[in-house]
Amino acid sequence: MVDVQNDFCPGGALAVEQGDEVIDKLNLLAAEHELVVATRDWHPSDHHSFQESGGEWPVHCVRDTPGAELHRDLERENIDLVVDAGTTREAPGFDKFEDTGLEDFLRERDVDRVHIGGLALDYCVKHTALGARQRGFETVLHLGATRAVDVEPGDGERAIKELREAGVEIAD
Ligand SMILES: [Zn+2]
Fold first, then answer.
1. What is the helix (H) or strand (E) element at residue 144, kind and residue range?
2. DSSP letter string, 108-136
3. 67-110 pLDDT per residue, tens
4. Which end of the chain is more exposed for a tag (fewer CB within 10 A), N or C?
5. Contacts of residue 28, Cβ cutoff 8 Å, sequence gap at least 6
């Protein structure tokens, strides 16, 4: 469950349109699977991606702020691990496998297949799914459990195409 945080949901600093609509599906998926990981974008206040630091995005998901908290409707009892990414000024945080220990956590538990949803399809979800494939996991993207930012129209569709070409299974 990628980055289902207040700042990425309606009313947040970097809201994904209808972003909160992914939550019901994610809760269902989480209840069906034995191991569940929630990720958080978890930035220092001077993160390089912020416009005031010369980056592309408004300030979002600053660690230990309400905007960085997981959405309250995400059912916590299902979550086995919370992974924080983008935790240093320079770390991008798009691929939640990068510098987080997530791969080791999954390998130690003999996981070979991962199901991915969350926010946003054309950024962290895409990069995390590609990261899973690069590390040899069978990877399933759940379209009903993700939404795109679509900064450029069609970004979400292009992300799906890219994922399919990388060997990611696309499910509902
Ligand atoms: Zn971020």
1. strand 138-147
2. HTT--EEEEEEE-IIIIIHHHHHHHHHTT
3. 999 999 999 999 999 999 999 999 999 999 999 999 999 999 99
4. C
5. none
Name the pTM for this structure: 0.96
Ligand 1 centre distance from Cα of residue 118 (Å): 14
Q: How far is the CA of 60 from the centre of ligand 1 (A)?
A: 6
Ligand 1 centroid to Cα of residue 137, in Å, is 24
Report the alpha-carbon angle 49-43-127, nearest 5: 65
Residue at 51: amino acid letter: Q
Reading the block at residue 154, the tokens are: 């069609």
CA 105–ligand 1 middle distance (angstroms): 23
* Rounded Cα gap, residues 103 and 80, in angstroms: 14
Residue with tokens 């034995």: 34
Instruction: Give 86 Cα–ligand 1 centroid separation in angstroms.
Output: 7
* Identity at 101, one-letter amino acid code: G
Q: What number of H helices and E strands is found in the chain?
A: 4, 5
